[in-house]
Amino acid sequence: MKLTALVLRLLYLAWLWPIALLSESQFPSRRKHKDVYLGENTRHKHGGRIDFKMKKSDSTKSLLIKSEQLLRIDDHDFAMRPGFGGSAIPVGIDVQVESIDSISEVNMDFTMTLYLRHYWQDDRLAFPSSNNKSRTFDSRLVKKIWVPDVFFVHSKRSFIHDTTMENIMLRVYPDGNILYSVRITVTALCSMDFSSFPLDTQNCSLELESYAYNENDLMLYWKNGNDSLRTDEIVLSQFFIEEFHPSYGLAFYSSTGWYNRLYINFILRRHIFFFMLQTYFPTMLMVMLSWVSFWIDRRAVPARVSLGITTVLTMSTIITGVSASMPQVSYVKAVDIYLWASFLFVFLSVIEYAAVNYFTTVEEMKKLKRGKVSLPVSYDATQAMAYDGCFHDNELDLSPFPELPTTPSTEQAAPPRNSSAEPPPTEGTRLWRKRSVRHNINFIMSNSYMIDSYSRIIFPVAYLLFNIIYWSLYS
Can you give the pTM of this predicted structure? Predict the structure, then answer.
């Protein structure tokens, strides 16, 4: 019986063996996954290398390889431009200005952040697609294909933003059309004219051009005409943007030929209110403050001299501050004309008091020498002159001067007349018109107080006339 049972078991096992081999050949992944899973547990348990399952699920590398194979990058030489040897390849450009970061008058430049987009067709990158959808890539694929070598003319500094990755986008369509977009901040030269500063308007431009390919190889053009330049809402502290418009032209180099050049032109008009508060209003106040000395008694030497020197030094400080914030140009600016004219008015107010003080002193010395002044016994002329530079009327007994003769023939014969006997001549008489310049000067010197009276009218009227002419010319 035992022998019979053993034989039956052997026959049963021999019958099951082919079935087990057949099932293993049909479902090999079960055992394989099981082995891999056990192997993963073993690797994690013993701290081995990265598991095989995670490495197989990371398909980034395989997708990149598939994209490169789809675009047939290895099958072409992308060091050459598309259609090499044929006509020039057209490259469309459009720009979206994000911001104008700064405008420097001292360095004569501006800084702008913009999105620069290129459009062209490269048949070497055409690929079959059932749904006719484009593929988008980043900067890693851009380095392996041909892109236009557009640069900024008169650029001082520029860089591509790289936070958190390089701000570069490449979009390829099945028919080979390509969109290449990059976000750039560029600092470029702007030749400014400050002859009307700060009432000026500046015209700056950002110029784009191909560096290696002339017009026979590459043709730059605005993709959508005048609509190719778009701007966000830009607000500047000292300027108002009047206009943004694109244009194009040609640039010639003697060694390499003609190149297509695109221009981004923008017109800036300066806000005047800042300079009115910082420069013009303080200057006007200093000039008007210098006129206060005309109402101060001419004998108050310390008060009038200190007021005049203070206004002169303040004007010098304002002129120095404005010049420090401006480039050293070889021509005169509008603000320079205003500041130096105002400085001249302040300076003349100091000179006016010097003339008043001098004429007063000279006339009193003449009266003293002629014996027409009766001095008190205790009067010391040296002390009086040392105190304020002139004699005091309350300390001097000045006798009245005789009236002027009515005709030249009786100039020496006629005795002095009383002013009440005959009225003084009016301005319209012939006698007033025949007075010589020297006679008028002598009359003013003998009545120096009249200089202050005339200055109270002449200085404000002259400064008002200057302002009218200035603002009508430059505004």
Answer: 0.66
